[in-house]
Design goal:
By secondary structure, the protein is of the alpha+beta class. The protein folds into two domains: 126 residues, Jelly Rolls (Sandwich), CATH 2.60.120; 110 residues, Arc Repressor Mutant, subunit A. The chain is built from nine helices and nine strands. Strands 1, 2, 3, 4, 5, 6, 7, 8 and 9 form a nine-stranded mixed beta sheet that branches. Strand 4 and strand 5 form a beta hairpin. The protein is globular and about 50 Å long.
Length: 249
């Protein structure tokens, strides 16, 4: 069974089998819900079963089958997960649920499948508002994230529009002030965050059937090798390896 991938602003959802990643870390908070055997290694520990892994924590995951959700920390859902983590690198989920036995089919809407999952975890969120940036106080940064989200909604903007100097100019800020404000609001610097979003954009293109080279250029990478290096650092595998695993939802 190949993994099925859903992309939505604020969340990347994967359900599949034979997921085996090398050590990696990313800005997203990760929910792992295995349907079979699994092993996650992080900070010298070996963890099995359902997990919540905090942002920027290096980990290695192998899983026979199940769900992986990558959630942006500043989103509504991400904020609730951050509270549950309480600055710990990871927490085990002890609640039992039938979610792990449900294997979605091609074309399924994950909303109905994930609703009991969120409810069981006591999370006050619906699939429709996963990217509500309730933690942000600056409207300029809120609007910037909304503009970035347009890429996943089918209105992809040219990569050159996202240079820090140009974004700062659009926001009527100096480049240094913009970079400081973004880190202050988001908890991550602009460049690595943009790299994360460009990688998500490339995944979106690949799920639509584009070759890796074309997806890389669309997302603003110099070539497919640059995309693959970035992808490996963020997901623990090359884009070539991932391409064999990804099928459109």
């Amino acid at each position: 069974m190949l993994p099925t991938v859903w992309l939505k602003p604020g969340i990347l959802i994967i359900y599949g089998a034979s997921l085996d990643a090398a050590n990696h870390k990313h800005n997203a908070i990760q929910l792992v819900w295995p349907a079979g055997k699994s092993l996650c290694q992080l900070e010298g520990r070996e963890l099995v079963g359902p997990l919540i892994i905090n942002s920027q924590i290096e980990h290695q995951l192998s899983m026979e089958a199940g769900w992986v959700l990558l959630i942006e920390p500043q989103s509504n859902l991400g904020q609730q997960l951050s509270e549950r983590l309480a600055q710990r690198p990871a927490v085990a989920i002890s609640e039992s649920s039938s979610l792990s036995t449900i294997a979605p089919k091609q074309g399924d809407d994950p909303a109905s499948l994930l609703a009991p999952f969120f409810s069981m975890l006591g999370l006050d969120v619906t699939y429709a508002d996963t990217n509500a940036t309730t933690s942000l106080t600056d409207k300029r940064i809120q609007q910037l994230l909304s503009d970035l989200d347009r890429c996943l909604l089918g209105d992809c903007l040219k990569p050159l529009c996202w240079r820090a100097s140009e974004v700062a100019s659009q926001l009527a800020l100096s480049e240094s002030r913009f970079l400081h404000l973004f880190r202050e609001q988001m908890g991550i610097a602009w460049r690595p965050y943009l790299l994360w979003r460009r990688t998500i954009c490339a995944i979106s293109a690949i799920t639509k059937g584009l070759p890796a080279t074309e997806a890389a250029h669309l997302a603003g990478f110099s070539d497919s090798a640059h995309l693959s290096r970035t992808f490996r650092s963020l997901f623990g595998m090359s884009i070539r390896e991932a391409k064999h695993l990804i099928k459109p939802a």
